[in-house]
Design goal:
heterodimer; A: mainly alpha; B: mainly alpha; 2 domains; two-stranded antiparallel sheet; 22 helices; 2 strands; disordered N terminus
Chain lengths: 502, 541
């Protein structure tokens, strides 16, 4: 038996590898390894260099992404399982830059909390590695591996405050829900593989779109796959983990989960829908429609009742996931607009939500709390933070001329452009929901600006330099994306359909 | 109209309209970077910036070509987001001219007349942002740009009420924000639908340009009616039309004086202007279809506002409810859909901005002196403050619609227009004029007449500065009452063009003309012979 195996291995020919295309992943991997080695060799002495090394690693990873973008050619490896195109590069850049901002907002929090710094950044990089791999994955197995690679470190990061019961609860809940979702997803994938005999998304689409495909199995498979990702993007009714996990996890990790991890879920979902399932819009469109409409409505209504800002942002994140799902419900009618709309929203959402969490972290440095009532009178002792927070909240609410407004406009444009009843209905859902959402965002605004500070305590908030630079970056990006939306408009003119041929 | 647009673009080199929008905005940014140690500069800088903007509006008013008032002039058009057919397009015609002039004139007065109670820097910055937003709404010729400005104006007003307001200010600010946002959210769906359906039907590229969309009239009847409703909801909240008016008394009462003046003077017109520029122009058929409904709501608003105003114990709240009534006249004039009605509505927008703006300023001056607005606590103010009482009386009479003052001309025209189109509603609406006389005169009597007791007896009169700020209002009130021709003749071609646009695009719609005498006369001619009625015969036509 061993001999037979050896014979087989002997026949193995390594598939050609395009090193340039794989360079972002390899660079990040190298820095992750370096970070771990530093810990082993230098032990405690390496601690203070960990965040710096992590940031350098992330910025270094941007180099191959940029050279690939300049080069401009679409690259494909492993028989089409790993693709580098414009869409993949944009999403990789989003993950890397979001990761960089997470490092900026983490560094003081983690070092002052006396947590395990090297491991923290190592796991963070590993999770981001999974995300940038996901952007290129066009194959069921690659997608699953990328998903696990990004999820497992995230489970651990959620429990990082290990002496805090809430953090343990957060991590455990996230872990159990996550593996549950993975199991469902894997089951769905196995059904699809059984029905089509292929793991490659392009071939999968061809097979399940054919008239003689075994319908029941395919439908089940598609539904299970979408449910699996619905957990990841925290769409209602699969959102229940999000508020508890967000509240319990360390706030920088929460920011990471709510932005990068959610974006990764969307990237996977878009890969599946636009490449793998595009021929079966009869199955996924009604389902995504329901998920989108329910997510935004339920998310916003529950957010109204929150007294903790992190929980409020969690529910608002659920609602925002609903907005981002909306164009996917018309994916077959206007594929390019739908994809561009969701990608635009992801880019802008990443910026404004990270910014909002950065303010939450900065304020908590003084108040040690995330209760909304502790934001009363913030303007009187932290005017800069108040202005920044107001910009982020209004951007999230979609008030022009901030970035979120453009994002919402793209979403509405895409669903209405589809020119179907369901599209217009979704447009109305988005419109009504943005008003509901405005209520809770504006309520925080009113508390910060109009109320008096509790106990008249006006000691200013000390914002460390790294947090400050994260705030400056996110504020600038939120405004620029709103005033000159052509910037995002151009970079998100992407298409996933090249491989499908229509 | 599109070709005319192109020729106008070539004629004007300096982008004056863009400058009018951006100057206040850049002024606000300038305020933010001024050092904090010299707070007295904030007001001066803000005033200079708004005065510069006012100078530009004055220049535009003078240079405005009244022979071509129906076409958009001074047009600025730049690509903004090319892929989606969105451009930065600004233009001015006879409909928007006077609202722009009003905006340009009111802001410097407000800045000069009222000092910030605290934190002057953000206060003046927000007022300038508000001015930029209002200018943008009145000038935008692109639906996307219009919507952006329409939303932007909410933010500064939200902060002005929330931070510098009185009483339940956080509640009032949030209510104002949510209410107006509720209206405009669906309008965004309407805007995108209009652009997408037009592009699909005509086969042209996607565009958000107002003129292209309005001239192509590519929407089906049902779609146009639904989309009109989405626009109408947004404008109705902003106007506000009964029963969507409940945010207004709260916002007005709790807003700082400057907020109230701007809210009444300029921001309420964003809705009525929107009806004219976007509602009727884009969806003429739907406007004709829903006109009776809107006229009915307008009339209810007139009566309801007037009756509610009569009941108020707070002077500022009384003026706020009188706004609901006045705006009702504008609505019935607009949806009479004839030249008199629309012109009267338009004139009434300017009149209301002048007289209600002035009333809010005066109420603010009384409040500053007496720290109360309760009518029952005031009384006999005429004796210690004769100047204030005199100015108040002129402004109040203008608001009532006394012939010879501006309010009369506007109300008269709207009622003529409405009478031709919806006779009985106009008759009912006319009774609102009587109730207006009742509540305003009664309020005046309680506040200014009678014996002055306690603090009322020692109330100081107008200062020189306050007196000077009231002069432009009084001049406008008298001038437009006695000689409204320069104002009307610049509106008329644009209003005629709008009515003609409705007539062209709506089958079996003819402009409702006041021709009652005409009918009677023809019968009389048949029965009685031509001699007796000869001179009246010449009147009609």
């Amino acid at each position: 038996m061993l001999a037979a195996l050896a014979a087989e291995v002997g026949d193995f020919v390594r598939p050609p590898i395009d090193w340039h295309a794989a360079a972002p992943e390899l660079t990040l991997l190298a820095f992750g390894v370096l970070l771990t080695l530093m810990d082993i060799v230098w032990l405690e002495r390496g601690r203070k260099w960990a965040p710096a090394l992590a940031s350098i690693g992330l910025l270094a990873t941007m180099v191959p992404i940029i050279t690939l973008a300049v080069d401009g050619a679409d690259r494909s490896m492993f028989g089409g399982a790993f693709v580098v195109d414009k869409y993949a590069l944009i999403m990789k850049a989003v993950f890397i830059l979001a990761g960089y901002i997470v490092v900026l907002i983490s560094s003081n929090y983690i070092s002052e909390g006396d947590y395990w710094e090297n491991e923290y950044y190592g796991l963070l990089l590993s999770s981001i590695l999974g995300m940038i791999l996901m952007a290129s994955a066009r194959d069921l197995i690659t997608i699953f591996i990328a998903l696990e690679l990004l999820s497992i470190p995230a489970y651990m990061l959620a429990t990082w405050r290990k002496r805090d019961l809430k953090s343990n609860e957060a991590g455990l809940k996230y872990y159990l829900m996550g593996v549950f979702a993975s199991a469902i997803l894997l089951y769905g994938m196995s059904l699809l593989y059984g029905a089509s005999g292929t793991t490659l998304l392009v071939d999968l689409n061809e097979s399940i779109s054919a008239s003689d495909s075994p319908s029941a199995i395919v439908v089940m498979g598609i539904i299970f796959v979408i449910v699996g990702f619905a957990f990841k993007v925290s769409a209602v009714p699969f959102h229940t983990w999000a508020p508890d996990t967000y509240e319990g996890a360390p706030t920088p990790v929460t920011a990471f989960l709510s932005v990068a991890s959610k974006a990764a879920g969307f990237v996977a979902l878009m890969n599946m829908l636009f490449v793998g399932f595009i021929g079966r819009d009869d199955v996924y469109e009604p389902m995504i429609f329901a998920l989108a409409a329910v997510s935004m409505t339920v998310g916003n209504l529950i957010a109204l009742r929150q007294t903790n800002i992190v929980r409020m942002l969690a529910y608002s994140g659920v609602a925002q996931a609903g907005y981002m799902l909306a164009p996917l419900a018309v994916a077959s009618d206007v594929p390019d607009s739908a994809l561009a709309a969701t990608v635009s929203y992801l880019v802008i959402y990443a910026v404004m939500n990270l910014g909002a969490f950065a303010v939450v972290i900065a304020v908590a440095r003084k108040t040690r709390s995330a209760e909304i009532d502790d934001y009363r009178g913030l303007f009187h002792y932290a005017p800069g933070l108040t202005v920044a927070m107001t910009i982020f909240l209004f951007a999230l609410a979609g008030i022009p001329p901030l970035g979120g407004w453009w994002a919402k406009f793209r979403i509405m444009g895409a669903v209405i452009e589809a020119n179907t009843v369901s599209g217009v209905v979704l447009g109305v859902f988005v419109a009504v929901n943005s008003v509901i959402a405005l209520y809770y965002y504006a309520r925080i605004g009113a508390k910060m600006w109009a109320d008096e500070a509790p106990d008249g305590d006006l000691t200013p908030v000390r914002v460390p330099a790294s947090l400050k630079s994260a705030l400056v970056l996110t504020v600038a990006a939120t405004i620029v994306f709103g005033v000159l939306p052509g910037l995002v408009g151009d970079v998100t003119k992407v298409s996933l359909l090249a491989g499908v041929g229509g | 109209m599109t070709s005319l647009l192109a020729s106008e673009t070539a004629a004007v080199s300096f982008p004056v309209l863009t400058a009018m929008v951006l100057t206040p905005f850049l002024g606000a940014l300038l305020l933010l970077v001024l050092p904090n140690n010299r707070p007295e500069y904030f007001k001066q800088v803000a005033f200079l910036v708004s005065a510069l903007t006012a100078a530009m509006t004055a220049w535009v008013m003078v240079e405005f070509d009244k022979a071509h008032a129906a076409t958009f002039q001074f047009v600025d058009q730049y690509e903004w987001i090319e892929t989606l057919g969105i451009s930065w397009a600004l233009g001015l015609d006879g409909i928007s001219l006077w609202l722009v002039v009003l905006t340009g004139a009111l802001f410097p007065i407000v800045i000069l007349a009222i000092d910030a109670e605290h934190s002057p820097k953000p206060y003046y910055a927000w007022i300038l942002v508000l001015e930029a937003g209002c200018m943008g709404v009145f000038l935008a010729l692109d639906l996307f740009a219009f919507f952006v400005f329409f939303e932007i104006v909410l933010v500064p007003m939200y902060f002005l009420i929330g931070q510098w307001g009185h009483g339940e200010r956080a509640y009032a600010a949030t209510k104002f924000f949510i209410y107006t946002m509720m209206g405009s959210a669906l309008m965004l769906v309407g805007i995108i639908s209009t652009a997408v359906i037009t592009a699909n039907t005509t086969g042209n590229d996607l565009t958000f340009g107002l003129i292209e969309l309005a001239e192509s009239q590519a929407l089906g009847q049902t779609a146009a009616r639904w989309i009109f409703l989405s626009f109408a909801l947004a404008f109705a909240v902003k106007v506000p039309i009964f029963p969507l008016h409940t945010w207004l008394p709260d916002a007005h009462t709790n807003a700082p004086t400057a907020g109230s003046v701007i809210l009444a003077g300029v921001m309420l017109k964003l809705g009525t202007y929107g009806f004219l520029r976007f509602g009727i122009y884009l969806f003429p058929e739907a406007a004709v279809y829903f006109a009776p409904f809107l006229v009915a709501l307008g009339t209810i608003g007139i009566l309801y506002g007037a009756i509610a105003a009569t009941m108020q114990r707070d002077l500022k709240r009384l003026v706020a409810y009188s706004s609901v009534a006045h705006l009702g006249f504008i609505v019935i004039g607009t949806f009479a859909l004839n030249t008199e009605g629309i012109e009267g509505g338009l004139l009434q927008m300017v009149n209301h901005g002048v007289s209600t703006g002035a009333l809010f300023l005066l109420v603010g001056m009384i409040y500053e002196r007496r720290h109360t607005r309760e009518i029952s606590k005031l009384g006999g103010l005429q004796k210690p403050a004769p100047m204030l009482a005199g100015v108040f009386m002129v402004v109040m009479l203008s608001s009532i619609g006394l012939p010879g003052l501006n309010g009369f001309v506007g109300e008269f025209l709207t009622l003529i227009g409405a009478f031709a189109a919806h006779r009985w509603w106009a008759v009912v609406a006319a009774s609102g004029v009587i109730i207006a006389a009742l509540y305003l005169l009664w309020a005046y009597q309680r506040v200014f007449h009678g014996p002055a007791e306690g603090d009322n007896a020692t109330m100081p009169d107008l200062t020189v500065r306050e007196g000077l700020t009231m002069v432009p209002f009084l001049v406008a009130i008298v001038f437009m009452g006695v000689y409204p021709k320069p104002v009307l003749e610049r509106m008329e071609p644009a209003v005629d063009a709008l009515v003609a646009h409705v007539e062209t695009h709506v089958e079996d719609f003819d402009e409702p003309v006041a021709d009652i005498a005409h009918h009677v006369e023809l019968e009389d001619l048949a029965d009685l012979g031509t001699d007796t009625h000869g001179e009246e015969d010449g009147e009609h036509g």
